[in-house]
Amino acid sequence: MRLKVTVAYNGANFVGWQRQSKGRTVQKTIEDVISVILNQPTEITASGRTDSGVSALGQVFHFDSDFNISPQQWQKALNTQLPDDIYIKDVCAVSDDFHARYNVVSKRYDYCIQTGDYDVFSYPFVYQLNRSLDLDKMRECAAMFVGEHDFTSFNATPLEILPYQIRTIKRLDIIDEKDKVRLIFEGKGFLRYMVRMISQVLIEVGLGRLNSQDIQSMFELNSKQACKLNAPAQGLVLVEVRYDC
After folding, report:
1. pLDDT above 80 (res 114)
2. Summary mean pLDDT of the chain
3. Among all residues, which ones are annotated catalytic?
4. 3-state class percentages of the chain: helix first, strand second, coil last, to nearest 5
């Protein structure tokens, strides 16, 4: 049986999703628990990886099991053994051809910025900018990123690894939440640091340091040297991964 699992985690306590030789990762923490339950080494496949410090409300992964328990029992068993900074929100049985990465229809990432006073309760999940932003200018420039574009200038994935860096952003909204500003990104897929780099570009616009002409120049340069901006990891959350199934 193939199981599709939706998981939330506090990224502040991990060096990222992907299993690594050093440091605590979400993937290895979950795999270790599943492997104990199944009494055999087990690998999980996620919709994608999140970097160190990035959290998730709706990351999705799949794994295969011959263990004869229901998805609801799996959810309870996993949550009983996982640490407090990881929580399994849902487990469901899917067809054997379901793939958590390749079947993604869209993803939603939120980037949250504290524009009011420093907040000791939200700092692990919100970028503490603690300065006001010009949201009208940010929205004007955000529109430049919506649609299909070559995002070579706005991500850290080397061209030698992935020459084709055209992606589609379906939605980039900027929401005023009084003392916070939320940037909502939706698209089928994002390249390494892409959301964080665009977020920092828009923050610079909101601070009056960049404008639409600067962004247009970055697009036209189509170079890894065009943009060196990257917003802090703690403001980023993977909110949801959508599938047809």
Report:
1. yes
2. 97
3. 51
4. 25, 30, 45
